[in-house]
């Protein structure tokens, strides 16, 4: 009988050839393309500024992993597809990730404890302390001594958005949406939400195009719009400090059609365009338009649309009359599909059809951005006990998204992947196997000759290097 060892892997033979494998290839990483992310960060300066949002109460002489290395390790790992802290038990040995983080000890040869040698990065227990530390306990706690300033992290997300523009735009649209984050434990703030039919959180997201400006974790017993006015107040103020002449518009579905939000916009010279749930009075207001659409559909046997544009005020919830546009649509099967939006945008600027089809309907693209972050960058990994810890995880995911968006904006522009989602970018460009050679003066990565995206990889790196390096002074 063939003698096997635990170290050798035996596969089904190929003709007369046996196929065997061993984990003895030397220093190899599956994340060689991650160096592109490091090039992005050197152009936007994100990791350093995220680290500045933390207060470190550790004794300086005992620190092996600076805060910047810890947060960078966490964010890069999410971007590279490692969703769980337990993954870092093995990732802590990865020399490529150590290079991304900025560690000079790429092999972990200078670690204090013998058991840590060979591991240049922090393990999951050390990283977990970022999430569990609190401001009240950090100065006195033995282990949990690194505290995040949530307000600074919020401001940084908006700053990174503002810096992505060479000059102030004439107009921007802020898209608001809420989504479910299903929970499978007894986390703080856990509630059952009837709409989503599960126990979950209900995070609030605010995007401007593909840029993430806010990701706020909330318990699911809240209204979809809860906290929107507070978030808009700080974001709009921060934007106007930099861009005083830029027109700001907000957009959301019917979950954000609340008198408080609309009144706030009207008082602060912000335009809004919000979905509005239909009722009998609204349907009566577009009765003629619906009749016209039915006639057109009957003649053409295709879907038909007409639009109504009128002033409307609710009987109780609104404090004033507002402009409402109704879409009177009849589908190809003859079923009516009316929809309504409310806005303070003047008719002279956008007629009813343009308002709905060109300005409101593109709101749906934001849902793709949320799915991209939740499914591709693991924003739904909120399994910590406290909401504060889970909010910090949501921040890490948000900055991983910002990093990937920076790669799209600076590196992939003009290529066939400039609109690709994070998972496609990761699979095509970042998950690139490389053999690593480390010397005193050089870190050399040898990539496979059969890699199918070599031309694009060269182009992306060329694009990135064409942009100036970030400097703290701006």
Uncertain runs are none
Q: Name the strands of the widest sheet in spatial order.
A: 11-10-6-12-13-16-15-14
Tell me, rounded to a whole number, the average pLDDT: 94
Portion in helices? 25-40%
Number of helices: 16
The major sheet is characterized as:
8 strands, mixed
Note the beta-strand portion: 15-25%
User: So what's the overall shape?
Assistant: globular
Distance separating the two termini: 69 Å
**Overall structural domain count:** 2
What Rg is obtained from the alpha carbons, in whole angstroms? 26 Å
Number-wise, the strands total: 18
User: What structural class is derived from the secondary structure elements?
Assistant: alpha+beta
Detailed description of the structure:
The strands form 5 sheets. Strands 11-10-6-12-13-16-15-14 form an 8-stranded mixed β-sheet, with helices on both faces. It is built from 16 helices and 18 strands. With 474 residues, it is of the alpha+beta class. Helix 3 crosses helix 14 and helix 7 packs across helix 8. Strand 15 and strand 16 (339-343) form a beta hairpin. The N and C termini lie far apart (69 Å).
């Amino acid at each position: 009988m063939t003698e096997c060892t635990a170290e050798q892997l035996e596969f089904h033979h190929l003709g007369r050839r046996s196929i065997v494998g061993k984990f003895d290839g030397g220093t190899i990483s599956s994340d060689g393309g991650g160096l592109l992310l490091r090039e992005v960060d050197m152009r936007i300066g994100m990791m350093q500024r995220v680290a500045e949002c933390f207060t470190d109460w550790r004794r300086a002489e005992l620190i092996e992993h600076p805060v910047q290395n810890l947060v960078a390790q966490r964010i890069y790992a999410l971007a590279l597809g490692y969703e769980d802290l337990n993954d870092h038990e093995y990732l802590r040995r990865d020399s490529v990730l150590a290079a991304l983080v900025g560690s000079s000890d790429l092999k972990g040869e200078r670690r204090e404890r013998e058991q840590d040698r060979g591991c240049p990065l922090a393990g999951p227990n050390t990283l977990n302390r970022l999430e569990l530390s609190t401001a009240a306990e950090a100065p006195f706690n033995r282990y949990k001594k690194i505290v995040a300033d949530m307000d600074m992290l919020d401001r940084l997300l908006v700053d990174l958005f503002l810096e992505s523009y060479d000059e102030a735009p004439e107009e921007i649209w802020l898209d608001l949406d809420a989504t479910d984050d299903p929970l499978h434990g007894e986390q703080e703030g856990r509630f059952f939400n009837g709409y989503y039919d599960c126990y979950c959180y209900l995070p609030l997201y605010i995007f401007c195009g593909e840029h993430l400006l806010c990701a706020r974790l909330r318990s699911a017993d809240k209204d979809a719009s809860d906290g929107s006015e507070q978030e808009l107040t700080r974001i709009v103020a921060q934007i106007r400090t930099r861009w005083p002449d830029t027109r700001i518009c907000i957009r959301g579905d019917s979950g954000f059609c609340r008198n408080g939000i609309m009144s706030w916009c009207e008082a602060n010279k912000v335009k809004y365009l919000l979905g509005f749930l239909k009722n009998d009075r609204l349907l009566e207001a577009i009765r003629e338009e619906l009749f016209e659409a039915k006639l057109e559909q009957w003649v053409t046997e295709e879907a038909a649309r007409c639009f109504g544009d009128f002033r409307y005020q609710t009987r109780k919830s609104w404090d004033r009359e507002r402009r409402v546009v109704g879409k009177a649509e009849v589908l190809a099967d003859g079923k009516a599909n009316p929809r309504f939006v409310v806005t303070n945008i003047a008719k002279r600027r956008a007629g009813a059809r343009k308002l709905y089809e060109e300005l409101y309907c593109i709101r749906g693209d934001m849902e793709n951005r949320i799915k991209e972050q939740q499914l591709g960058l693991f924003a739904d990994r909120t399994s910590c006990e406290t909401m504060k810890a889970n909010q910090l995880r949501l921040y890490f995911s948000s900055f991983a998204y910002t990093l990937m968006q920076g790669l799209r904006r600076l590196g992939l522009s003009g290529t066939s992947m400039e609109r690709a989602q994070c998972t496609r970018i990761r699979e095509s460009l970042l998950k690139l196997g490389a053999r690593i050679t480390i010397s005193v003066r050089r870190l050399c990565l040898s990539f496979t000759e059969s890699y199918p995206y070599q031309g694009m990889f060269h182009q992306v790196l060329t694009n990135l290097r064409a942009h100036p390096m970030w400097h703290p002074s701006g």
